[in-house]
Amino acid sequence: MDKNKYSFSRRSFIKSGLALTALPFVNSSSLFAYEDSTEVKDSLYDLFQNPPATARPFVRWWWNGNKLTEKEILRELDIMKEAGIGGVEINPIAFPGGDDLGLPSLRWLSPEWIEMVKVALRGAEERGIVCDIIVGSGWPFGGEFLQTEERSQLMTIVSYHVEGGGVKELLAGDIFKEAAPVIHSPYDKPSYEIYSAYLAPTKLDRFIAPVEISVDKNADLQRIEIPEGEYILYILVKISGFQAVINGSPGAAGPVLNHFDREAVETFLNRMSDNLFPALKGLKGFRALFCDSMELEGANWCKDFKEQYIRRRGYDVTPYLPFILYKVGHMGHAVEGGEVTELTGEAKEEVARVKHDFYVTCMEIVRDHFVKPYTAWCNKHGFQSRMQPYGREFHPLEGSFYVDIPECETWLFQSGTDEERPFTGRTAYTNVNKFVASATRLSGKKIISCEEVTNTDDVFNVPLQTVKLGGDQSNLSGVTHSILHGFNYSPIEAPFPGWVRYGTFFNERNTWWPYFKLWSAYKTRLSILLQETVPYADIAVMHPLADMWTLHGPQRDPFPSLHYPGYQYRVWEAIHQNGCSCDYTCESVIQQSVMKEGYLQYSSRKYHTLILLEVESMQPDTAKALERFVEGGGKLIFVAKEPYKSTGLKDYPQRDKEICDIISSMKHNHPSRIYHIPAPENDMHVWFRTVQQQCDIVPYVKIENPNPFISQIRHIADGKDIFFFANCHISKSFSLTLTFPYKGRTVWLWNPETGERFIYPSISKNNSTSISFKMEPAGSKLFIIEKYNKGKRYPESPKERTDYQELKNWNVRMEHINGSIEKRTIVEMVDWSKQKDTRSFAGNIFYEKKLEGSISPYNYIDLGLVVGISEVILGGEKIGVKWYGRHLYHIPAHLSEKKGLTLQVKITTTVGNYLKSSEDNEVGQRWTRRQQWHRMGMLGPVKLI
What we know:
Elements: H1 11-15, H2 28-32, H3 43-49, E1 58-64, H4 70-82, E2 87-93, H5 111-127, E3 130-134, E4 153-163, E5 166-171, H6 172-179, E6 191-201, E7 203-204, E8 211-213, E9 221-226, E10 230-240, H7 262-276, E11 288-291, H8 305-313, H9 321-324, E12 342-343, H10 345-380, E13 384-387, E14 405-411, H11 432-442, E15 449-454, H12 464-476, E16 481-488, H13 516-531, E17 534-535, E18 539-542, H14 545-551, H15 571-577, E19 582-585, H16 587-592, E20 594-596, E21 599-602, E22 605-607, E23 609-613, H17 620-631, E24 635-639, H18 652-669, E25 674-677, H19 684-695, E26 702-703, E27 710-717, E28 720-727, E29 734-740, E30 746-750, E31 757-759, E32 763-765, E33 768-775, E34 780-786, E35 805-806, E36 810-816, E37 821-826, E38 843-850, E39 860-862, E40 865-867, E41 869-874, E42 877-882, E43 888-890, H20 893-896, E44 902-908, H21 912-917, H22 922-928, E45 937-940, E46 943-944
């Protein structure tokens, strides 16, 4: 046997110089107990069993108010190390409130603050923990030290309906007040300037440039002569420093930087590197420097914007500014209701095309003046760039091409009852995840970072199961590494619950913190497997981005106010739910792709099918590339619409005709490879199953009866096909049958919780292999299919029967985190949140019962509905822990014949109800007072089955 045939190449991993380190909390002897000496060395499985620290979850480490001490920094590093956390992102941020213990706030980049950074770096290196650091503080970064011209700039507009002739008198103060953006985080000392003024007709069906009116930019009273007639008076106002850093810490709060101005960007970055980096000599330093959400609230200008525009678009944007600018509202949205010229016909078309060009120009300037210099600056100093490259200022796909570690977001949302929350109605991954993941793969990178389980409201009521659900959904969307949101720097002396900026209560004072390492072990093994293998995708999906920008403008990602079309972000889900996989693509990628043997190939990614979602506009070079694709045997699907026009203003009539001619020729010459599919209406997974049938798309895994709660991804490695399946339903199990088109290969089940692997029972028939299993609530399965077939077989579980014995009459002991202990007796299971005297409980609830006779007829203990984490002890022997899914425990054979055993069940709750009831707890009340009481305990029924 050729041993190398089954060894996974770790060239890229070894190249990084990172040593393998075993998870400290895993019982390694159990991992290797079943191994056979005849087994082939498997490097990928070795990594899976013993992942490096770089694969473990990282945390955003909020340095709340920079109230730092060496002792506390090292204490928290020890806590995170013990919990299986592999890295930290140092993130200085404003103090969130609470008892600050009289500790002073250190200023960002002060000698005292830099000394604390050095303490953290030394302590992290000693513990094998990786360090990133955010640039600046809060988001977007900036500071009090910025000069007026370095601050973010907004070109906005004020408009009036006027009639001549006569003079229109306007106070500059009133103009500025009207122009002020209505945003989330305004800076209190903005600088206003009347930039220009124009008169335009009230209606236009053919574009005519507005007439520029002379204004005295320094006058407090503007006197504007209005000729005879009816007009719209437009006054353009430039505002500098209109936005404040969100939650900036001392020394890095104040106005936001102008990310459109390369000189300002480089000055800001060099301020940090000149002050901080020389002091770090002799230390290992950072893995990456981080840039958080851009959220620039509509910023759109820099000192040479007009020159940049002419160079990039080939014409002057000035005559169009009155028609494309708007008053800015929250997160850059347009404030509706102003006086505007009514545009129809050719004028409406022309202005819409200029809007597209304007938005694209903004994206290009931010790319060239901020993103590229940012990555170059990071690399110059020996670090990687890590960034969340999305929002109005970024192409949602191409933005990630210029970042070493692109990052997306997965959120937890508070909604409904425990059974409904959190993922049956709203996904945890955001719409940007698939863009970022696709771009990362297209640009040849393997780390797809995620600000994971972001949580800004349900901080204290999130159970560990929900963390798993959110993390699984991240991985389904393409994520390979998690940065948890987050770990609050909070001295143990601070009154409970401590200092809390945001996020799920990842803290040693949380009731379920002792079990966190179970999730971190699971997540780490999954992450290393996904990082060190190649995600497979056979379909490319192109969104109508140009059409959206032309009609509506870019959206505020990751939470756009408009989905265009409304189903666009659900298509990829339906593809995966039906046994295929996809990447997102875009025009520049399609244009640069190679069309070969029926595939659209870009770098190492290739697709046999390209789906265009209601795309009407594109560049002529994109249409030519589509033609080459179908000529080469590729499959092209138009959903609802087909391209017929070009993007942008310049020479558009000729370019429109060119596109129409190409599409028409393509349809005529290759009708069998072009499909027209109606838009989906309701059930997306049913819609794509129909698409598969109509377009002859063969899934790589056939899923019997797909449903919207089960999804999958496929990765490949040398000789291995890897499938990760996950159920996002919190209370329902689903039976699945999968059929793979393989013959003579073995199906393995790898367990990310323990590192074990087993040969899974399968049936081979007609050149295919099938497996069947039940996916429990919040459950997941990791299957590896390969030729190697030596190893331990998956143990068969006794089949469940319908007969059972319900267990009643329990002794209960409630150990509260406040130190109190209460005992009581119950007959039936109860929800402790329904009783006034117990609903404020948080801690451990022990249920105890002596079993009569032997339990030999039964194989399982089923706890029924459990809200929390359960542990079961039977006859003094711990038989397991369940932190997600169904709380079903197998009874060991050596205990089943014994009589009179005592059954003890320990349930660990969340802390939210306790804080909700603590009316004098300022921090707790801030998060919980408007929340519902959350169910609590073992609700049963408890059965022997």
